Each structure stands twice: as structure tokens, then as C-alpha cells.
Amino acid sequence: MTDREPSAGPNLTGELLHRFQPKIVRRDLRVARVEEITPRYRRVVLTGDVLADGFPFVRFACNDHVKVYFPHPRTGQIVAYREAADDRWEVDGDGGEPIRRDYTPRAWNPGACELTVDFVVHEHGIAGAWARDAEAGDELVVMGPRANWLLPENYSRYLAAGDETAIPAISRLIEEAPSGTRVTAVIEVADAAEEQHLVPAAGVGLELRWVHRDTATVGAGHGSALEAAVRRCELPDDTGELYVFAAGEAGAMKPIRRYFRRELELPKRQLNVDGYWKRGTADHDHHTDDED
Q1: Where is the FAD-binding FR-type domain (predicted)?
Q2: Strand spans (E) along the chain
Q3: How far is Cα 269 from Cα 75, in angstroms, rounded to an integer?
Q4: I want to staple 273 with a disulfide (CB 3.0 to 4.6 A). Which of 33, 89, 92, 257 is the partner?
Q5: What pLDDT sits at residue 122?
């Protein structure tokens, strides 16, 4: 991964590029509208006066993430950080520890000053419950992104794989891939009702494969069916033309990472595997995942 602050433009380094933002920005936002994409997926469009100053939504920075701060389920208070003197950040309010999760910005509409974030709806967990019940006027605090993570654009083939938590990032990869490239996307969801309509960018070839956990016949548990589907993907004879992006449950990502790094000996620079969440952990820090 290249870690520097280059001039604006596409990433042609051949590896993931980390482009820092000048500062972290706190944005106090409210829900403009909510759309049900599937029975377990909600699209939440956020607005707020602070968005008139813009938002650092960068093309092909598909793995960017912001910190979303949620109201406490009992008090309704949002505990977040605010900028204090000497560029320090301190917790505002007295409602305890912040409740926050990482999310991929799904879309940015500069004309309407609207930021879109997609949520997986589930019965357990504060974020999923909030998304399930969200309605216009509800408030959130969004901080970041601290940096933009630009995928390299000098490959002819892209393989994207993940579970439903990775759909925003994979969708953006499909929509923002360079013209003339081919994308193979493998996405694991609960069942057929969770499939989404994903449209590639102009000039991009797309092969989209959905893996349903309710009918999976390979192995048991989350991720095994995804790994099997990834292994069935046809790869280019010249793997130097391939870039791989995969994200989802941390434990499920490890065998996928090993497959490409150890079995196929794909160079590290051609692979970005991210454990977005970890079973049994409420606020998993994906920056600490082992590389294997």
C-alpha cells in the first residue's frame, strides 16, 4: 500500500493508495428519507447544513469508511467527539461512551447536499435496529473519512467478493471501475430476496454471482460458501492483470486471503482483503486484522 498525499487524479501506482484528508470533520446530520432495498437492507439518505461545504467522496475509493455515531437506545442521546482547543477531540455530553460503527459512503449528491449510507438490518445490535426503525428527521453524527483509499486503476480484471456488509463497496467498484475493464463480483447474502440490481459503469464488463446462505451446500457457517464460489471463478492466465478486493466477516476473509496469497502467489500489492466485522465483537477494529 502506498501511503502518501499525491495530487488529485486516478491511482496508477498498481496498489492501494492512502490519500489523507487535511482534517477530520464532524458532521451533524439528519435523515432526509429511507428506502427499503431488500427485506434486510435500508438505504438512508442524510442531509444537513454542514454538507453545503462538501464531502470528500472520491471516485474508485470504494473502501472508504466514515464513523457513524448512533443515539443511545435508552436515552436517545448521541455521544460523539467534538473539536476542542489545540486541535484536540473530546467527548461531548455525559451519556457515556460513544456508540459508533464504520460504514462505507454509498453515494454523494453535491447538488442536493445529500450523503447516502446503506445499512444491513438485523434484530441484534444497535446499528441494525436503528436502521430498521429510521425515519425522516432522525439524527446521526458522521465523522471522517480520515483518508481516501483509492483502488489502483491500471488492471484489466477486477475480482470483488464479500458478504452483504461489503455490498456498498462492491457496488461502487462496479459503478466506478475504469472503462474497458472486466469485473467479476461474488456476493454472499441470506437468500434470493437479498439480491440487488447492480449496474456497471459504461464500458465495463460485469459477471455477477450471488451466493445464498440458505441453500449453500459447501461447508457450514458464514463464509464457507463464499470461499467456494471465489475458488470457482475463472481468473486470467496472466494474474498480473488481476486486482482482488474482498471484504466481510473477519474469519471468513482469512481463507480467501490465503487462497490468493499462498496458493496463487498473488503479490500483496494486487490484493485488498478487509475484515469489516467479527463474529462476537460489537465494534471490530478492522485495522488490526492479521495479514496471515
Answers
A1: 24-152
A2: 2-3, 17-20, 26-38, 41-47, 66-69, 81-83, 89-91, 100-103, 105-109, 114-120, 139-143, 147-150, 157-163, 182-189, 205-212, 242-249, 271-277
A3: 46
A4: 257
A5: 82
Cell 441453500 belongs to 215
User: Do the first three CATH levels of 2-148 and 155-288 match, i.e. the same topology?
Assistant: no
Predicted confidence at residue 24, as pLDDT, reads: 92
Nearest to 122 by CA among 259, 6, 277: 277
| DSSP H stretches of helix in the chain | 126-133, 167-176, 224-231, 250-258
Residue (of 89, 86, 70) closest to 78 by Cα position: 70
Owner of C-alpha cell 464504520? 102
Task: In whole angstroms, give the CA distance from residue 71 to residue 241.
Answer: 45
Task: Give pTM, 2 decimals.
Answer: 0.92
Listed by start position, the domains of the chain span 2-148, 155-288
Query: Which of 54, 64, 63, 59 is CA-nearest to residue 11?
Result: 59
Q: What class has domain 2-148?
A: mainly beta
Fold for 155-288, please state it: Rossmann fold (3.40.50)
Residue segments in the chain with a per-residue pLDDT below the cut of 70: 1-8, 93, 95, 216-223, 280-292
CB-based contact 190:122 (threshold 8 Å):
no
